[in-house]
Amino acid sequence: MLENYTIAGGTASEIAAGLEVAVSEGRLAPGVLLPPVREIAARAGVSAGTAAAAYRLLRERGVVETAGRRGTRVRPRPASTLREEIRIEAPPGVRDLATGNPDPALLPPLHEALAAAARAHEERPAMYGTGDDEELLVLAGERLRADGVPEGPLAITSGTLDAVERVLAAHLRPGDPIAVEDPGWTALLDLVTVLGLRPVPMRLDDDGPLPGELARALRAGARAVVITARAQNPTGAAVTAARAAELRAALAAYPEVLLIEDDHGSGFVDLPLHPLAGSANRWILIRSTAKAFGPDLRLALITGDPVTLGRLRGRQRLAAGWVSHLLQRAVAHLWRTDAVDTAAVAAAYGSRRDGLVEALAGHGVRAHGRSGLNVWIPVTDEITAITRLLPRGWACAPGARNRIGSPPGLRVTVSSLRPEEIEPLAADLAAALLPAAEGRYG
Q1: Which of 174, 249, 304, 311 is a Cys-bridge partner for 170, taking CB atoms 3.0 to 4.6 Å apart?
Q2: Displacement of CA 387 from its chain's centroid (Å)
Q3: In angstroms, what is the C-alpha Rg of the chain?
């Protein structure tokens, strides 16, 4: 409770601001139970409605969380604390396999694409009010339809997380439950926290989220679901045709739940897309270009139902407004000229990923990595495993960044792994790791 803290302020904003400062300065620790609304009102000399509004402001800012009869508490993890900060810095001489970046050698050269974009800009410069690049929209639509994605309106955002944030902010409110993969994408889990949403974890295996886990999350009231189509981060899971059918069936029973499908693997994964799009009334599918063309090309193509796309574009117009047309035209040029040989790039990543998984199996260590840039290795204790690996010359990412309730693991990014490093890495991992878990990830 707040025995040593004086409630100050006569308005909801003032009360909330004082409590937020106390939390940020450490005078109110994470997990502290706050008084009921009526007690706060009495101590501040305000109405119960004003005190309730102050708590609502704090929830919206991600400072506190409310759990029904269990009351309101300061969030265990402040919204300003990012999971990305849970990292191991590779000291000099240690091979860094923790970054999650693609291999620069497999990214296309950009000088021709940027030059073409610059020439187009000189001929028809994009000004305020200019719509998205028509050629890019046509190319995106053709590729999406070829992959079986239902036809719908299109939008362009500054990457996957930009689209996810705008859609969640438009559809959900602080405290709403959202189903997420566990283990899952660090940035998404951070975003869920910052927005004040309540994550409902879904366990997964190599074929994607388990149908029973999705059904459980939906029964628990999840108002949105985020599913990675392929190259799941950190496990490499990819949704199969059979699994997609099961997930679509589960979603069909809850048509008003918002479905967000992340297909960032397009362009560097050779496994086919089995879209869930269209199995809910409100849905979007996001296709990022960052891993295939380079992280600095902050661009993603979005499709979805008209209402959801309309809300996304409305919020975009009120904020950034649009994505640089120079970037849009550069990506259109890269697509039009087939600048990336998807099969060759996927084969290169696949040989490194599969090679490590097979080498680890030869040492009796179970690992996961069906697609993408990463291999996920279940361990008994992450800190012990990382501490043992560093003297052997390897830095891997702790799975704590990706986990909610799933068991410990390490994420090894294989994108830059050289063939001659695979067996030495597997041997060192086997020597450093405690016995690996079997089967699913949680």
Answers
A1: 311
A2: 27
A3: 23
How far is Cα 248 from Cα 238, in angstroms, rounded to an integer? 15
Q: How many CB atoms lie within 10 A of CB 215?
A: 18
Stretch 261-272: mean pLDDT: 95
| Alpha carbon distance 200, 333 (integer Å) | 40
Share of the chain above pLDDT 90, in %: 69
Please report which confidence band the pLDDT of residue 35 belongs to, taking 50, 70 and 90 as the band edges: confident
Instruction: Give helix then strand counts, H and E, for the chain.
Output: 15, 17
Q: Is 262 helix (H, G, I), strand (E, B) or coil?
A: strand
**Strands laid side by side in the 397-398 sheet:** 374-378, 409-413, 397-398
- Residue 394 gets the label, from left (phi > 0), alpha (psi -120 to 50) or beta, of beta
pTM of the model: 0.83
The yes-or-no verdict on residue 360 having pLDDT over 90 is: yes
Beta carbons of 373 and 100 less than 8 angstroms apart? yes
Half-sphere exposure of 160 (CA within 13 A, CB side): 23
Q: Does residue 8 have a pLDDT over 80?
A: no
End-to-end CA distance of the chain: 35
Rounded distance between C-alpha atoms, residue 336 and residue 344, angstroms: 18
Query: Distance between CA atoms of 265 and 238, rounded to whole angstroms?
Result: 9
DSSP 189-249: HHHHHHTT-EEEEE-EETTEE-HHHHHHHHHTT-SEEEEE-SS-TTT-----HHHHHHHHH
- Per the structure block, which two tokens stand in for 50? 């004003």
Query: What is d(CA 116, CA 82) in angstroms, rounded to the nearest whole number?
Result: 38
Return the higher-pLDDT residue of 176 and 209.
Answer: 209
Total Cβ atoms within 10 A of residue 99: 14
- Give the integer Cα–Cα distance in Å for 65 and 55: 9
User: DSSP letter string over 80-95?
Assistant: T--GGGS--PPPTT-E
Over 50: is that where the pLDDT of 178 sits? yes
Q: Residue 62's pLDDT band (boundaries 50, 70, 90)?
A: confident
- Helix or strand or coil: residue 66? strand
Token code pair at residue 125: 């410069």
